[in-house]
Write a structure and sequence with these properties.
This protein is of the alpha/beta class and 237 residues long. The chain has a single domain (2-170), classed as Flavodoxin domain (Rossmann fold, 3-Layer(aba) Sandwich). The chain has eight helices and seven strands. Strands 1, 2, 3, 4, 5, 6 and 7 form a seven-stranded mixed β-sheet that branches. Helix 1 links the parallel strand 1 and strand 2. Helix 2 crosses helix 4 (86-94). The longest helix is centred in the last third of the chain and has 28 residues, at 177-204. The radius of gyration is 29 Å and the shape is elongated.
């Protein structure tokens, strides 16, 4: 199996790269995956050229191929302006739109304060859901004060275990037979819904109205004018 880490860190050394390495090491312990790291800092110029002329350079092309062929993906970005970095987004903008379909992805981010931790749920998770990736339940955020803290190690281990489980259980299935099974399940659900709707319409058109889902007959409805006449004193009394 192949595990690819996409790191959008800009500094050297980079806490973003460090978090990506820790997640990759924890995942590799649970799988037989070979780890490859894609440093977006080194690809910035080629990414910009690809956005303007539509042609990837050799290093960018190799990185895109690695991400497309990976069995699992770890993506890590620093937080810029309460979201992922522009370099991070640009890389996935030039990636083929179907490259991540059905691929297990672990999302992670680094920042100077814990106040930006919701970037994982408000920015990263929606992005990869749009790309039809399978995002692991546990996302990992590391603020400056988290390094060396016990909580970060626990989150790393939990997220790595979830990614390893998806890589082992869904390898080769999501882009093959499983997608057909999902389609069949959807078709069956639609057919069942149509049958239920037809049954309800048939019940509604019968001579005796029936309460939906209960089988009990509706009570007789007496017009208001008839009820009022019954309450009024008889004429000539």
């Amino acid at each position: 199996m192949r595990l690819v880490v996409v790191s959008a860190g800009l500094s050297v050394p980079s806490s973003t790269r460090l978090l990506g390495d820790r997640l990759a090491a924890a995942t590799a312990e649970r799988t037989d995956a070979e780890v490859q790291v894609v440093e977006l800092r080194d690809l910035a110029v080629e990414i910009a050229h690809h956005l303007t002329n539509g042609f990837p350079g050799p290093r960018l092309s190799s990185a895109l191929d690695a991400v497309t062929a990976a069995d699992g993906l770890i993506v890590v970005t620093p937080v810029f302006s309460a979201s992922y970095s522009g370099l991070f987004k640009s890389f996935f903008d030039v990636l083929d739109r179907d490259a991540l379909a059905g691929k297990p992805v672990l999302v992670a981010a680094t920042g100077g304060t814990a106040r930006h931790s919701l970037v994982l749920e408000h920015a990263l998770r929606p992005l990869f859901a749009y790309l039809r990736a399978i995002v692991v339940p546990t996302a990992v955020y590391a603020a400056s004060e988290d390094w060396g803290a016990e909580g970060l190690a626990g989150r790393v281990e939990r997220a790595a275990g979830e990614l390893a489980g998806l890589m082992g259980g869904l390898r080769g299935d999501l882009r093959g037979g499983a997608s057909e099974s999902v389609s069949e399940s959807v078709s069956e659900s639609v057919s069942e819904s149509a049958s239920e709707s037809e049954s309800e319409l048939t019940s509604a058109s019968s001579s005796e109205p029936v309460l939906r889902g209960t089988g009990a007959a509706l009570p007789d409805v007496v017009p208001f004018a008839q009820q009022l006449a019954a309450l009024s004193p008889s004429r000539g009394a």
